[in-house]
């Protein structure tokens, strides 16, 4: 039921906007009472936070995969594959990305949420550990950072700019750009 609530809320927040959507409307679309909704989410902000944390989960999945490898060089070698998977995950969740673009005030309100802050800090620490690894050459670490920045910038940061482009075409173009950033002259 919890996932159904989130899916319906995502649909309504995307269509009408977060601020214009009420818990009553979410409950009506689900065919449940507001009390049933309160059992799972006390506030509308809690629903938005859970939707936002779905994006965090995508990043966490990528970094967890890298951290499971034994050394920095294995992580660097796996980076292109992990980045490709991350691109697929982001493209597959374009509705979540558009939710953020269309509801910046709600996103700003999350900045003071302790759970959100802890999640952000954890992902930043994971990325920091990876990019600070001394057994990955500096040039490669910089290119890895640039590639993740480019992926996030295009798919998340550009918001609806590429909404007229098919998911498959956007994914292919982002992959090409990321590979260009990862290419180190003189290395295979």
Salient structural properties:
188 residues; Arc Repressor Mutant, subunit A; Tetracycline Repressor, domain 2; 2 domains; 10 helices
> From N to C, what is the helix and strand string?
HHHHHHHHHH
Structural class, from helix and strand content? mainly alpha
The tally of beta strands, per DSSP, is 0
Radius of gyration: 19 Å
Cα end-to-end separation: 49 Å
CATH architecture classification of the largest domain: Orthogonal Bundle
What's the overall geometry? Answer: elongated
Indicate the CATH class of the largest domain: Mainly Alpha
Major sheet description: none
- The share of residues in extended strands comes to under 5%
Helix content: over 70%
For the record, the count of structural domains works out to 2
Structural account:
The chain is built from ten helices and no strands. The radius of gyration is 19 Å and the shape is elongated. 77% of the residues lie in helices and 0% in strands. It folds into two domains: 1-42, Arc Repressor Mutant, subunit A (Orthogonal Bundle), CATH 1.10.10; 54-182, Tetracycline Repressor, domain 2 (Orthogonal Bundle). The mean pLDDT is 89. The longest helix has 24 residues, at 44-67.
